[in-house]
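RECORD TYPE: inverse folding
INPUT: structure tokens
STRUCTURE:
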């Protein structure tokens, strides 16, 4: 084999090696491009997922804030309604309280009422001796019905007539006036107690109004508002 043949074979080998190198380089380049694209896609998807999660988190926060604000507004509205209802009910009680002031103006009917209140108190106390307090303005009427009240109680309870001691030192407060609108007052009635003071029966008109009002409050609310608010 002469030099020309050797040179030719070397050139062929060089071309072959170069071709293989170029093909390998192309394969590496393509593979690198694919890996780059894959990695780029993964980064893009990861970032997109992160953005979506952040959006969902903020969306939930907005929804929670919206629900809280709605709940607060609803509660505030409900409180306003309840307050308005209470104001109306209280105004009715105040109006009824003012009407009580006229009861004692009708002497005959009030005298009969005082006797009934005393008898009722005696039946609840069931004591042989009691202390009675009334308004100073009612003292005459109270003393005028004491004997008949004691006898009626004795007949109903099948006992001896009790001793009733009228307190002439401490009287119940008088009816309210324009000058004393916010002080203690009493629209009428009596307070009876055991002699030792351990049992007290408050049978004033104001106390009776409180009892009746508490008892009838659910019915009053149903009539006014169509439902009972707890």
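DESIGNED SEQUENCE:
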């Amino acid at each position: 084999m002469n030099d020309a043949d050797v040179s030719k074979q070397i050139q062929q080998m060089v071309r072959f090696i170069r071709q293989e190198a170029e093909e390998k380089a192309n394969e590496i380049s393509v593979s690198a491009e694919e890996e780059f694209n894959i990695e780029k896609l993964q980064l893009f998807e990861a970032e997109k997922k992160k953005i979506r999660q952040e959006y969902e988190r903020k969306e939930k926060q907005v929804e929670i804030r919206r629900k809280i604000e709605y709940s607060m507004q609803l509660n505030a509205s409900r409180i306003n309604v309840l307050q308005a209802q209470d104001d109306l009910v209280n105004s009715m009680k105040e109006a009824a309280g003012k009407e009580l002031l006229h009861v004692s103006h009708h002497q005959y009917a009030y005298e009969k009422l005082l006797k009934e209140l005393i008898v009722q108190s005696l039946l609840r106390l069931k004591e042989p001796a009691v202390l009675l307090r009334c308004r100073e303005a009612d003292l005459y009427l109270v003393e005028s019905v004491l004997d008949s009240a004691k006898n009626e109680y004795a007949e109903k309870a099948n006992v001896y007539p009790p001793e009733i001691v009228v307190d002439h030192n401490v009287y119940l407060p008088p009816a309210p006036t324009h000058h004393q609108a916010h002080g203690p007052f009493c629209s009428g009635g009596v307070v009876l107690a055991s002699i030792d003071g351990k049992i007290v029966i408050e049978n004033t008109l104001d106390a009776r109004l409180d009892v009746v009002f508490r008892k009838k409050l659910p019915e009053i609310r149903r009539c006014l508002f169509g439902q009972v608010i707890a």
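NOTES: The radius of gyration is 49 Å.
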